[in-house]
Design goal:
Layout (H helix, E strand, L loop, with lengths): L12 H72 L6 E3 L3 E5 L2 E5 L1 E4 L3 E11 L1 H11 L2 H4 L7 E11 L3 H7 L3 E6 L3 E5 L8
Parallel strand pairs: 5-6, 6-7
Antiparallel strand pairs: 1-4, 2-3, 4-5, 7-8
Helix pairs in contact: 2-4
């Protein structure tokens, strides 16, 4: 019976068995290839996630270090600029300062002061209107969060390398001093017409 050919198709049982065996082998090869492709895709996905994680780490490190550099450059420039405006600053607090008040906490990048006046400076690489709004909301709690300054006149100021959305104009209209990054003197200071005093 095995050697008999099927009359309609002229195929022997041996040929049918060989075709089935070849098909089974091809299916196994295809299955193995799909498994290998899936393994490679998973490995590629793992590597991409690892690369993305490392990039975010580097970006965070760069942003943090860049921010610290801008703050370090702002302190001496602001000290000189505010003295030139008649606010005789005698002390500069280094690094970020953290204070707590009844319903939250706040951070101020640079604080300049003497016994009667203080300047609280928010430092940004790129400043937007929402940054100014957030800073002004925080300033409402400044004396509560930073008790040593509760008897001082406190002037809020913003310093940035770049101002988007005309945020520097917005800050001036709301009474904040504005420090602009400039080529020769590092920063220039613009005094608002009606300065905010806390």
């Amino acid at each position: 019976m095995e050697t008999t050919r099927l009359e309609s198709q002229n195929i022997s049982w041996e040929e049918i068995k060989q075709i089935m065996k070849n098909n089974a082998m091809q299916l196994e090869v295809n299955r193995l290839q799909m498994l290998e492709t899936d393994r490679r895709m998973q490995e590629t996905d793992r590597r991409m996630k690892e690369t993305d994680r490392r990039m975010k780490e580097l970006q965070g490190l760069f942003t943090t270090q860049w921010g610290k550099l801008i703050e370090a450059l702002t302190r001496p420039a602001a000290l000189k600029l505010f003295k030139d405006k008649g606010i005789n600053i005698t002390q500069v607090y280094r690094g970020a300062h953290y204070g707590e008040y009844t319903t939250g906490s706040m951070e101020v990048d640079v604080i300049l002061c003497n016994s009667a006046e203080a300047v609280a400076v928010e430092v940004k690489t790129t400043c937007k209107v929402e940054d100014i709004q957030y800073f002004m909301n925080q300033m409402e709690h400044f004396k509560e969060a930073f008790h040593p300054f509760d008897k001082c006149k406190v002037y809020p100021a913003i310093a940035a390398l770049q101002y988007d959305e005309d945020s520097d104009i917005y800050a001036l209209k709301h009474g904040l001093y504005v420090l602009h990054a400039s080529g020769d003197d590092l920063f220039t200071l613009t005094e608002p017409k009606n300065r905010m005093v806390l």
